[in-house]
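Q: Protein A?
A:
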Amino acid sequence: MKLSRQLPLNALRVFECAARRMSFTKAGEELGLTQTAVSYQIKLLEETIGEPLFLRRPRQVSLTDAGERLAPKLTEAFALMNDALASVGAALSETLSIHSTATFAQQWLSRHIGNFQLKHPTIAVRLATSATLIDFTREAADLAIRWGTGNWPGLTAHRIMRMDFTPMLSPKLAEEAGGIREPADLLNLPIISAGDEWWGQWFTAAGIADPGLEKFPRNEFGTQTMDASIALAGQGVAILNPGHFGEDIAAGRLYQPFSLMCNDGRDYWLVYPDSRRNVPKIRAFRTWITDMLPDAEP
């Protein structure tokens, strides 16, 4: 007996089912095949092995000695494979891998993810942060929080937070400056990350076309969290998204001197591959985060 190099898994599966049911017809019903297709697969397996596996009689089949030896081992093998797949599937379904921008992870997700886990105690969360856009075809992640316009081919995207921006500073610094009455007053204070394009957009919207931002150091601190920390320490004015710092605003640690907010068309989005939109753990997180954020789109 000489097995072919490529194991005929389809034929083995058909034989196992026919041997267990002792009927080509019943095997076809279980597997969704015609009786002719079942007969063909078993014949293919017999030719591969070089031994008959069934004795064919009118309206009845029985196993040969070779079939008797093969059938229980195949039943055990397929059971082991099913168990292996189930264990892998269970492990994957219990771990939700999230890729997020650092600011969103630090300022919102880290403060609320405990609520998600209270609602879904069987789902563990693995969080990674980066300023780069994740490539779902190359990196292991179930979903991502991205900043942009929401137009990413092959991905389902839900807007979850508007990325509005406005100047913010500590109340103590505003008091030391004698109050902030008009936008031009901000230019008498240190401007944090003056090279950020948001500053120019906001001052233009506020009626100051040339605010002279070039006179300030062109520092780049990488995240809004860093800029906000400097502002909280009373060391300057930062241009921030109020949605990230609601607790600091409510507690009086950060002060928003003007109601004017701008938006450059880029917001925060929850994204995942189109093909995985019905995965239970992804559906669970999508429902949770869109319920939690008032501006989110389900």
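Q: Protein B?
A:
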Amino acid sequence: MEKKLKVGILGGTGMVGQRFISLLENHPWFEVVTIAASERSAGQTYESAVSGRWKMTTPIPEAVKKLVVMNVNEVERVAATVDFVFSAVDMTKEEIKAIEEAYAKTETPVVSNNSAHRWTPDVPMVIPEINPEHFDVIEHQKKRLGTTRGFIAVKPNCSIQSYVPALTAWMEFEPYEVVVTTYQAISGAGKTFKDWPEMVENIIPYIGGEEEKSEQEPLRVWGRVKDGVIEKAAEPVITCQCIRVPVLNGHTAAVFVKFRKKPTKEQLIEKLKAFKGLPQELKLPSAPKQFIQYMEEDNRPQVKADVDYEKGMGISIGRIREDSLYDFKFVGLSHNTVRGAAGGAVLCAESLAAKGYIAGK
């Protein structure tokens, strides 16, 4: 890319916004020029706005420290400074829908980490290795919005990233019934142990709305484009429990699968290792070289040892074995705020730029 695209971060002071800013430091295609947040933070330098609540382990990038935070609700003013925006705003679902559409209508593409538009029929919800063809609905969305370059694209929920890639790699064996339990990190709630001391040595067997997302969103990812909208897949049917565990970063999934065409363990491992998609083919800046790694050791993957695989953009799978009730079971691990949130959105934006959907204004 000859000239870097100018990027804005909506909701740039929150945990996911901070992760966006960290990941985009020295990005070869994108440059953060604008950070927008609530009226409370607007008018302060970014360094001042996040003082005492910077949650990343790396320091605030020098390039953004002195940027003056803009008011995210001043849509026209913010949009005039950027080529596209990442959205990580903390609002109600209806407010998010409205503000993301408002930005899109200023002819500013919106790549969102939020869940508000994940079921809007003409908004693509994409894991770039799995369903980049869903970007085709963008042209239909633009007609609805009355735009020529403005649109919304979203990435799916963080909890599904640790098992959906593996199941996708095995689609030729026709998985039709899946039982999942996810063990989810506290950063998924925007928290650290300092913010949430009651999570130390604790487990909470409930995460609001998460089980429905974990059961339904994979079916939309596996769906097909038909008549300008995404039609969700019927199978595999998934049932899920989601549990909050005392881990900072990393969502683990324990998964049981039934297949119509029963594979061997060796075939399953071979398919994981061979699986790749558009990001690997195009060698996008944030793409993991090896999307899915299979770990032979009985005690892997582990959060501490494996969550940062491929800079947090890869998926780790282990413990594939035959089951007495289902055909096979396995354990998956993904980084919930990198692949599962900001990093997944950055990879979506890279894919959109490579396909010509995002360009300089």
